[in-house]
Specification:
single chain, alpha/beta, six-stranded parallel sheet, 15 helices, 39% helix, globular, disordered N terminus, binds adenosine monophosphate
Length: 433
C-alpha cells in the first residue's frame, strides 16, 4: 500500500516543473535557440533565448545543473561553423547572468565528461543537434537507385537504430528531461520526442511549453464567441489542414495574403500575375463549400492593392480582387478590404491570427496587415482574447509596436498550426504519455 502511494505521488510530481525536485540533479533541456545571427555571427534578436530563461533559472535555483540543447538553422554537415551554437554562448550568458560552458559537440567524450562533471548551479550548452542527421531521423547518405520501398525501409531502420542511439546518448548526460522548445514540438526529432522515452518518470514541460499548451488548448477548447481566425500568408497549400480544422471550431475565417488569389481564380476570377496555385483550385472550392455547410463566414477582401513589381519602387493601384490585369499582382488588401476586415475583427471576442494579409515586409504593401494588427489590438482592449502565432504575424505586431496590446504571442509557427489541426503535437504527447 505504502509502495503504491509512493508511486502515485511520484507520478503526480514528475510532470510538473514547479513541483519537481531538481536538487543535485542534471536536467537536459531542449530549448529553441534557433536565433537570427548577423554576418559576424552576433545574435540580432534574443527573444527565444529570453523565453527559456525562467525554466533554466528554476532548475538552477532549485539546486540542479543544466545541459542546454538546441538546433540552429538547417546545417547539412557536421561541423559547419556558420551554424555553430558556439556563436551564441555570450548571448546566453548575458540572458542568464551566469557562465555557460560550451561543449563543442553534442556527442563524443568531451560532452559526456562535461555533463558528468557539472556541479549544481552550472550550465553547459551542447553543439547544434542538427549537425547529426540522427537528430531529425533522416539519413543523409542513402544509396542511389533505391526503390521506394527500399528507401522507406532504410529510413525506418535509421529511426530505429542510429536515431534511438543518438537520443539515448543525449539522455545519458542527465537525470531528467525538460522540453521547453514549443517551436519544434511538431517534430518527431531525437531531442523533442525520442529522448522523452528514456525518462519515463522524469520528463516535463518547461514553463514556456506549459504556457503555450495552456494558451492554445484553452483557445481551441473554450473560446468566447464570436471566434474569428485570420489566416494569411503566401500559399493556401501550407494552410489547408489548419483551415479545415478551424472550420469545425470558429464562427468566421478572414482569409488574406497570397492565398486570396487562389480562391478568386478557383471561382473564375482573373488574378493577373498574383501568386496562385491552380492545383489547389479543388481544395479552395471544397473549403468554400465546407464553410457554407458549417455556417462559417469566410471574409475575403473584395479589392486588392496591385503592383507592377515586388518592391517599394513599384507602381500601385487598386482593383477588384477577381479582376487583376496581366502584368500586375495583388500584394495587399485595398480600402474596401481594410474596412471590412476592421469591422469584422472589432465584432469578435476571440481572435487567432496567423499570416500577414499582404507583403508586409515592403512598407508600401504593409497597410492591410497594419489595419489587421491595429484592429486586433483594439478588440483586445475592449475585452477580446487574441492569440498571434507564426514568425511573420509576430513580426507584424512587433513592426507596428503592438506586441503588448494583444493577449498572447505564441513562439510557434508550424507548431501552432499543427496543434490546431491535430489537437496535440508529438513533443507534447511524448511528455504526457
Ligand atoms: P506564410 O509563411 O505562408 O505565413 O507566408 C508569409 C509570407 O506571405 C510573407 O513573407 C508575406 O510577404 C507573404 N505574402 C502575403 N501576402 C502576399 C501576397 N499577396 N503575395 C505574395 N506573398 C504574400
Amino acid at each position: 500500500m505504502e509502495h503504491l502511494d509512493c508511486r502515485r505521488s511520484r507520478q503526480r510530481r514528475t510532470n510538473v516543473i514547479g513541483n519537481y525536485d531538481f536538487k543535485g540533479k542534471r536536467a537536459i533541456i531542449r530549448v529553441d535557440f534557433n536565433v537570427p545571427l548577423n554576418e559576424q555571427g552576433q545574435v540580432t534578436d534574443n527573444t527565444r533565448i529570453l523565453a527559456a530563461v525562467p525554466t533554466i533559472k528554476k532548475v538552477l535555483s532549485a539546486g540542479g545543473s543544466v545541459i542546454l540543447m538546441s538546433h540552429l538553422g538547417r546545417p547539412k554537415k557536421n561541423p559547419d561553423p556558420k551554424y555553430s551554437l558556439g556563436q551564441i554562448v555570450g548571448a546566453v550568458e548575458e540572458a542568464l547572468g551566469t557562465k555557460v560552458a560550451f561543449a563543442g559537440d553534442c556527442m563524443g567524450e568531451k560532452a559526456a565528461e562535461m555533463a558528468k562533471n557539472l556541479k549544481p548551479g552550472e550550465v553547459m550548452l551542447l553543439e547544434n543537434l542538427r549537425f547529426y542527421a540522427e537528430e531529425e531521423g533522416k539519413p543523409r547518405d542513402l544509396k542511389e537507385g533505391l526503390s521506394k520501398e527500399e528507401e522507406k525501409a532504410a529510413k525506418e531502420a535509421f529511426k530505429k537504430g542510429p536515431q534511438q542511439e543518438f537520443a539515448k546518448k543525449l539522455a545519458s548526460y542527465a537525470d531528467c528531461y525538460i522540453n521547453d522548445a514549443f517551436g519544434t514540438a511538431h517534430r518527431k526529432h531525437a531531442s523533442t520526442y525520442v529522448i522523452a522515452g528514456f525518462f519515463p518518470n522524469d520528463k516535463m514541460f518547461g514553463y514556456l511549453m506549459e504556457k503555450e499548451v495552456k494558451a492554445i488548448s484553452s483557445l481551441m477548447e473554450n473560446p468566447a464567441h464570436p471566434f474569428c481566425a485570420i489566416i494569411g500568408g503566401s500559399k493556401v497549400s501550407t494552410k489547408i489542414g489548419v483551415i479545415k480544422a478551424l472550420i469545425e471550431k470558429v464562427d468566421s475565417i478572414v482569409i488574406g495574403g497570397g492565398m486570396t488569389y487562389t480562391f478568386a481564380a478557383a471561382q473564375g476570377g482573373k488574378v493577373g500575375d498574383s501568386i496562385c496555385e491552380p492545383d489547389m483550385f479543388p481544395v479552395a472550392l471544397e473549403i468554400l463549400e465546407l464553410a457554407k455547410q458549417k455556417g462559417v463566414k469566410l471574409v475575403m477582401s473584395p479589392d486588392a492593392l496591385i503592383a507592377d513589381q515586388f518592391s517599394q519602387e513599384a507602381n500601385t493601384k487598386e482593383a477588384p480582387a477577381n479582376a487583376i490585369p496581366d502584368g500586375w499582382e495583388g500584394v495587399d488588401i485595398a480600402e474596401q478590404g481594410k474596412k471590412a476586415f476592421l469591422e469584422h475583427i472589432l465584432g469578435c471576442k476571440t481572435i487567432l491570427w496567423n499570416g500577414p494579409v499582404g507583403v508586409f515586409e515592403i512598407d508600401k504593401f504593409a497597410t492591410g496587415s497594419r489595419v489587421v494588427a491595429e484592429a486586433i489590438a483594439e478588440a483586445t482592449a475592449k475585452g477580446a482574447y487574441s492569440l498571434i502565432g507564426g514568425g511573420d504575424s509576430v513580426a507584424c505586431v512587433n513592426k507596428f509596436g503592438l506586441a503588448d496590446k494583444v493577449s498572447y504571442i505564441s513562439t510557434g509557427g508550424g507548431a501552432l498550426l499543427e496543434y490546431i489541426e491535430f489537437g496535440t503535437l508529438p513533443g507534447v504527447e511524448a511528455i504526457k504519455k
